[in-house]
Structure formats: structure tokens, C-alpha cells
Amino acid sequence: MTDFTQFPKSGTIILAGATGELGFLIAGFVVRRGGSLKSLVRKGSDNARIPELRRLGAEIIEVDFNNVAELVKACSGGTCVVSALSGLRDVIVETQTRLLNAAVEAGVPRFIPSDYCIDYTKLPEGSNRNLDLRREFSTRLNNAPIAPTSILNGMFTDLLTGQAPVVLFKIKRVLYWGDADQPMDFTTTRDTAAYTAAAALDTTTPRFLRIAGEVATIRDIQTAATKATGEEFGTLRAGSLGFLGSMIKITRALSPKNDEVFPPWQGMQYLHNMLSGKPKLSPLENDRYPEIRWTLVREVLATKH
Ligand SMILES: NC(=O)c1ccc[n+]([C@@H]2O[C@H](COP(=O)([O-])OP(=O)(O)OC[C@H]3O[C@@H](n4cnc5c(N)ncnc54)[C@H](OP(=O)(O)O)[C@@H]3O)[C@@H](O)[C@H]2O)c1
């Protein structure tokens, strides 16, 4: 494992969402790199990660995320605000806007929004509900007097052994629609966190940083699954992308679950986007922090066994 203490950086990171999956990992990497960390948590939260964050050396600041004055106070002295919040419009657009306004008022020079996704700048409005919210927030961010940096990482590779029904371990098939040779971007949650922490402590980042632990086609995933498990995997083409588009409409009509962050139809939208090739990340900035070692799809699939 990389000893990040060899690459020390200074800075005070104000992190929102540190009790979440990605945020907690970002917190760990910020501290390992020598940054100071202030974690904003919801008032009265008894999340089990809070004592862990304290042990890491983070300052825990309980805030009412609806109260800009409290957020301004919490942001003061920060060199970069990092959001790893997860949610729908109330969080991605509204809460992040309050956090942004507070960061500006507190004089924080930089802001990393909770994007961590495929390239939504290349996708048409309406093709992915969650990414439309990110695009909407990005308009506000672009107009604010602060330097924004979005981390775009494709799909969390971890989802291939979890929520994303792509690698069907039981029947040894890789499920897809459209073209099995379409390159797609995958980065683990951990590698995304390591990179985000490095970017948070780097004062010279551009508007977008695009990364991929591995660029893989459906056929590459098939090979990775075969190597990872020692068993022969095949592919399973369920139809065209047009057919997947119709399935998304039907699933959304039958099971809208509009108040869930990741209802099945939204996961299908994400897969449709990726398989279309439109949000493919380019250019990749993987080498910006050469100390980061990227985890391959095969390594993630091997954890399933
Ligand atoms: N590219 C991909 O494949 C992929 C996959 C998964 C996630 N992501 C993205 O990664 C980011 C982080 O996701 P995650 O999985 O780490 O999320 P998570 O585990 O659900 O954590 C969400 C964090 O946001 C906080 N939060 C939620 N609603 C809040 C509110 N109204 N006010 C204040 N704090 C609130 C939570 O605090 P509490 O602990 O108090 O609830 C928690 O700290 C999101 O942008 C998500 O979309 C990307």
C-alpha cells in the first residue's frame, strides 16, 4: 500500500459527507497526506463513523445544513470545501448551493462538488435524472467567485460485484445492451477517494479532472471475470440500446420510486449512458498524482470469490 505520508501537502479541507462511503475514505486520505480536516456532520448525528473520524484526527463540526450562517462559520479557514453528499435535488442542488455560498462568504478559495460520475457535460438533458441535478448545480458553481474542480471517475468498479447487474456470477455471463466493444470508465470508490484527497490538497487543479482505474469494454469485463474466478465467462446481449431505453421507460412507469436516490431505472439510465459512449472520459488525468496505484476490474471481481 502506498505510503502517502511521503507526499505531504498542507491545507485545511472542509468535508461535507464524511460519514458516507466515499466521504469517509476521502477523510482518511486527506489525513494520511498531512492535510487538516474539518468534517461537517448533521446536528445530533450518532453515525458510528464520527468517533472513527475523531480518531483520525478530524475536527467534527455539527451544523444545520439549512443554516448558511452556521456553514460560513464552519467553512472559515478552509483551503478547499469538498462535498461527498449524496441525495436528490434538495441535497445536490439546494444543500450544495448553501454550502457553496457559505464557502464564498468564508473566503474559501476552492470547491469540489459531489459529482464523482461519468462526463455529464457530454450528455443530453433528460438522459439521467441524477446527472441533470449535477449539471444544474454546476451552472451555479461556474458562476460563483470560487475555483471549482469536479472529479469525474466513471462508474465505481465496486458496483460490478454489487448493485450493477452486469457480471452475472451465477450464470457466468456479462450482460449488456448495444456494443460489446464500447470502452467505459471504471474507478473504485477507494481510488476515487485517494485522488479526490490529492486534488483537494493541490492548489492548481483545473475545472475537471477525469480519471479511470481501468477503461474496459464488455469483452474486457468478460476476460476479467474469467481470470478473476478461474471459470469461463460469456457475454449475454439483451438487445439494442433503443430496447434498453424502452425498458427504462417501462421500469420507471411501473416502479417510479422517484424519492429514492438510486431506483432501478436510474441505474439503467447510467448503464445506458455508459454503453452509448457519450460520457466517455477524455483526456484522463490518472498520472497527475503518480503515487496512486489504480485498482483493476479483475482485482475487484476477484473479491467476489
Ligand atoms: N460513480 C458511481 O458509480 C457512484 C456510485 C455511488 C455513489 N456515487 C457518488 O458518490 C458521492 C457519495 O456517495 P456515497 O455512496 O458515499 O453516499 P452515502 O454513503 O449515502 O453518504 C452520503 C453522505 O451525505 C450525507 N447527507 C445525505 N443527505 C444529507 C443532507 N440532507 N444533509 C447533510 N448531509 C447529508 C450523509 O450524512 P448522514 O450520514 O448524516 O446521512 C453522508 O455523509 C455521491 O455524489 C454519489 O452519487 C458515485
Automatic annotation (TrEMBL):
InterPro entries membership: NAD(P)-bd_dom_sf (IPR036291), NmrA-like (IPR008030), NmrA/Isoflavone_reductase-like (IPR051609)
Species assigned in the record: Dyadobacter psychrophilus
PANTHER family (UniProt xref): CIPA-LIKE, PUTATIVE (AFU_ORTHOLOGUE AFUA_1G12460)-RELATED, NMRA-LIKE FAMILY PROTEIN
Keywords: Membrane, NADP, Oxidoreductase, Transmembrane, Transmembrane helix
Superkingdom, taxonomy of origin: Bacteria
GO function term, MF aspect, one: oxidoreductase activity
Spans through the membrane: 12-31
Keyword Membrane in annotation: yes
The protein, known as: Nucleoside-diphosphate-sugar epimerase
UniProt keyword annotation of Secreted present: no
Domain NmrA-like: 10-232
